[in-house]
Amino acid sequence: MSRTWSEKSIYLALPFWCSLALIPLVWGAAIWGGMAFFLVFLATWLLFPFLDLIFGLNLENENTDKDLSSLFWYKLLLLCWPTLQFFTIFGLIYYACSSEFSKLESIGLFLAVGAISGIVGINYSHELMHNSGRIERRLSDFLLGMVLYSHFRSEHLLVHHRYVGTPRDGVTAKYDESFYEFLFRVIPTCLASAFNAEIQKLKRKNLRWYDFKNPFYLYLFLQLSFAALAYALGGSWGIILFFWQAFVAVFHLELVNYIEHYGLTRKYLGNGKYEHTKPHHSWNAAQKATNWLLINLQRHSDHHYNPNR
Q: Where are the domains of the chain?
């Protein structure tokens, strides 16, 4: 018997919900203690690449004219995640700081937490920021605030997509640039470029940089609020764990950024102009399983060619 379209949309979306399995996994690691936090890395770094060998590639391009209602189950996943991540990060801060956890165990556990908030959380925030809805944008800010990287939204939308593959895009890794050179270059430069991009956006509206329409007020409020909550739940050690998971999350984000455009540049046409962004200006990967976890982030050429797809 053939499936209805609603049943088919659930069936197609279901594999992408695999990320939810990481939540009970990291809570289990907290309960078991010791080296159990490695289970998260076994899942994200080893299990999914192994599943890629089994499930192979997906080389099909989705129909862009489909009814938006067919995306309900994909969107629901994005809307559910921020709450799950919030209670996981701060629940585990309280648990680690109020139990008999050793400092070393806590560091290991929040290494795993940071991997989840980076691999899944920042990735989902990226998907949400490309939505035009106000709720989706705020949820993106909510997720980025939890990893102290709120400016990523401004940098990504106003700088990266416009200047990818050019010297003005700090996120395009240079040929022969090592990852660690890239990492410690991109963290400060992207903060500065994001702030400058928002200033220029305000100037076009005849507004000053300190106008309350500058989203950096919201970014700062969210980050300070989350840091204060971490301190309230776990004291000085709680805030150390919070900052640690944020660094690990950003590390994972920038590792992906490093790979996605490494050594690729757009041709300079003169008069400050570059050729249009084309599929060959991004590195792609079509492995099914890891794209389920990363909600097709690895199909990056299409994302830059049509950011709102």
A: 16-56+71-305
Contact by Cβ (8 Å): 158, 201: yes
Block mean pLDDT (10 aa), the chain, length 309: 59 91 97 94 94 88 62 92 98 94 95 98 96 94 98 97 94 96 96 98 96 97 99 98 99 96 92 88 88 83 62
Determine contact, residues 135/143, Cβ cutoff 8 Å: no
Residue 89 near residue 242, CB atoms below 8 Å: yes
Burial of residue 261 (number of CB atoms within 10 Å: 0-12, 13-18, 19+):
buried
The pLDDT, as a whole number, for residue 253 is 97
Instruction: Indicate the SS3 state at residue 215.
Output: coil
Structure tokens at 307: 């950011």
Give the pair of three-digit tokens for residue 283. Answer: 């590195």
- Residue 173, token pair as written in the block: 């890794």
- Please state whether the predicted TM-score (pTM) of the whole model is above 0.85: yes
Joined tokens for residue 64: 């862009």
pLDDT at 1: 42
Q: What phi and psi values does residue 151 have, to the nearest 5 degrees?
A: -65, -10
Side-chain-side CA neighbours of 142 within 13 Å: the count stands at: 19
Residue 274: φ, ψ to 5°: -125, 160
Q: How many CB atoms lie within 10 A of CB 282?
A: 23
Over the range 46-83, which residues count as b (16 or more CB within 10 Å of their CB) and which as e?
ebbeebbeeeeeeeeeeeeeeeeebeebbbebbeebbe
Q: How far is CA 79 from the centre of its chain?
A: 14
Quote the pLDDT of residue 8.
65
